[in-house]
Automatic annotation (TrEMBL):
Its cofactor is Fe(2+); Mn(2+). This is mannonate dehydratase. Its EC number is 4.2.1.8. The lineage of its organism: Bacteria, Pseudomonadati, Acidobacteriota, Terriglobia, Bryobacterales. Gene3D superfamilies: Divalent-metal-dependent TIM barrel enzymes (3.20.20.150). It comes from Paludibaculum fermentans.
Amino acid sequence: MARITRRTYVKAPLAAFALSAAEAAPAGRTTGQGGIQFSEILNPGEVSRMRLARQIGINHAIVNVNSTLAKVPRTEYVQALTKIKEEFTAAGLKIAGVESHPVPAEKIKLGLPGRDEELENYQAAIAALAQVGVPMVCYNFMAGLGWYRTRVDLKERGGALTSEFNNADAKKLGLTKFGEVTEAQMWSNIEYFQKAVIPVAEKHNILMALHPDDPPLSPLRGLARIVISAKNYRRIMNIVPSPVNGITYCQANFVAMGEDVYSLAQEWLKEKKIFFVHFRDIEGKGERFRETFHDNGPTDMARMLKIYGEGGFNGPMRPDHAPTLEGEENDRPGYAMGGKVFAIGYMRGILDAYKLPHS
């Protein structure tokens, strides 16, 4: 009888495990072959979150540069952006785009005095982004209030914390300091913005990916919202028709609008108008809804990923708002990393099962 050494005893199951894993792995592995770019929103200086993003297989970053560029003159935009890019490159991450306006833009959105200076800053920022090789801007036109929730402590599966919007509660808070802003004003403001910015973006080949209003209903505490339907998106993209005038497909917002999220994605993918995807789900509709885990809402998320993959989407996609998990602080509702780790694993598994490429 052959003698079994301690080394043989330890190595045998490891070899068997490696063999079974190789047999179980899908043929033609899809990682690193182009396709959907898994991304995470990260700020300069967030070293720990950058490391965690790399550890779970994320290679692309979506970065907020607004606060950085707000502190420097236009002549220093390229220098400031180059420094940010170097930081992310050193962390092993490629910047796939910037989220939120690259420079302050509240006067633009509200049509206030000083908006022309903000627009000049915006045009300079687009040129600077192009110069350093950042290809996309995810922007919004939510004036006065950004994405908005009325609760951030709702219990999801296992006691995880998630957020809710209830318009009945929002109405109780009354108007904001901006008073009432009409839809006519907002249409005028976005037209002014588009005519000033889209031609510059096209010149520099920067994709302008408009994010829906969140929540997508109007008015919100007296502030009109116009990026609230597929019909309005089509109207906006026709203000200045351009191959760079497109969409951030934040799919839960289109669910909240009551749109057919599947056929709409297929339509806009064919038109090459989806530049960026926010992957998340909600339970409910515009007047009242709550965020869910990525696998715990009503949308067929596997079907959505198949639509993106088979539709030829090869841009950045990030798992948006995720519940706050056990042991995490709830100081950044929707943006703690635990739920994002779960979401990325879920998304990778679906794409690998369908043998769809991602990087």
